[in-house]
From TrEMBL:
SUPFAM superfamilies, per the entry: Nucleoside hydrolase
Keyword terms of this UniProt record: Glycosidase, Hydrolase
Annotated protein name in UniProt: Nucleoside hydrolase
Domain Inosine/uridine-preferring nucleoside hydrolase: 4-303
Signal peptide boundaries: none
Cellular component terms per the entry's GO annotation: cytosol
GO terms (BP aspect): purine nucleoside catabolic process
Source taxonomy: Bacteria, Pseudomonadati, Pseudomonadota, Gammaproteobacteria, Oceanospirillales
Pfam families in UniProt: IU_nuc_hydro (PF01156)
A molecular function (GO) term: purine nucleosidase activity
Presence of the UniProt keyword Hydrolase in the record: yes
Length: 312
């Protein structure tokens, strides 16, 4: 099984991924940590609590970063996820409360309780992971692996021509997290843009998931409008679920080893730079960061089916 902490900013595609983390028989969701990103952090926490309750499986939720580490916050993309992060649908009230600990402390505590066991799956801006590294740098040797939905190597960006949203929203935090000495895989737009969750997929999910299914389908309808306008497709990229697909079904992906860095200033702010392993550069500082895996290929249809099968 895969014990994980899910670091998230729900968000329509985050909600789909949370449902998978709660439902997949091989994933043990130890807790969620929340960050600003698609919404403000209080809304993210509310949505994370709500989704756990709707699934009948409340898990600890620890609230984290309210803004980037260094710079002021970029505005939230309300036309993509809605003001409430879930496509502006009416939501039932939440019964439970957040864990009293800060997200970063929750990560540090949980990783130290089960050294070698816990995977961190992060699908929002990376301030919580960066703060956890600051509190306890030894977690780099204690996590099982770190899976990041973020960045783009060949695909181009979705916020600027070069920057993907999760990296762009806190490039300084991303720089720290993507260059730390821990086993890391980047699941970026190179693969998430190859996966499309169609209305037919969502119909099956809605039917199978009861109350939770209504929220997933309602928010999907809003998100679908954005994809129709922005990419001209009928369906949505289930970005954050693809990180979980990598965790459980790495056989569906092609990866390459190499070294990552993040541009933190200027017009390329938030760009992820990738130096493939073994390639010599005249300025060799690009290969001075730790070796990581980057996903560059995927069987997109198989991933979309895996998501749907997990939730049906
Ligand atoms: C990422 O940005 C957010 O809007 C999504 O939830 C996803 O994590 C895709 O670029
Ligand atoms: Ca997200």
């Amino acid at each position: 099984t895969y014990p994980i902490i899910f670091d998230t900013d729900p968000g329509v595609d985050d909600a789909q991924a949370i449902a998978i983390a709660l439902r997949h028989p091989e994933i043990e969701l130890l807790g969620m940590t929340t960050t600003f990103g698609n919404v403000d952090v209080e809304t993210a926490t509310h949505n994370a609590l709500l989704l756990g309750e709707l699934a009948g499986k409340p898990v600890p939720v620890a609230q984290g970063a309210a803004c980037p580490m260094v710079k002021p916050r970029h505005p939230a993309p309300k036309h993509i996820h809605g003001d409430n992060g879930l496509g502006n649908i009416d939501l039932p009230p939440v019964a439970g409360q957040a864990d009293p600990r800060n997200a970063a402390q929750f990560i540090v505590d949980t990783v130290n309780q089960r050294p070698g066991d816990v995977s961190l799956v992060a699908v929002g801006p990376l301030g919580n992971l960066a703060a956890a590294l600051q509190i306890d740098p030894s977690i780099v040797t204690k996590v099982k692996q770190v899976v990041i939905m973020g960045g783009s190597i060949r695909e181009g960006g979705n916020v600027t021509p070069v920057a993907e949203a999760n990296i762009f929203n806190d490039a300084h935090a991303a720089q720290k997290v993507l260059t730390a000495e821990w086993p890391l895989t980047l699941v970026g737009l190179d693969v998430t843009h190859r996966c499309v969750l169609t209305p037919q997929h969502m119909e099956r999910i809605e039917t199978a998931q009861g109350e939770l299914g209504k929220v997933l389908a309602g928010s999907y309808a809003f998100y679908r409008n954005f994809y129709r306008q922005a990419l001209g497709i009928d369906g949505c990229c289930p970005h954050d679920s693809v990180a979980l697909a990598w965790l459980v079904r790495p056989d569906l992906f092609e990866t390459q080893r190499g070294h990552l860095n993040v541009v933190t200033e200027g017009s390329a702010e938030g760009q992820t730079l990738f130096a493939p392993k073994g390639r010599a550069f005249i300025q060799d500082r690009w290969s001075q960061t730790p070796e990581v895996d980057v996903c560059l290929g995927v069987d997109g249809q198989a991933v979309s089916n895996w998501i749907t099968d997990t939730l049906s």
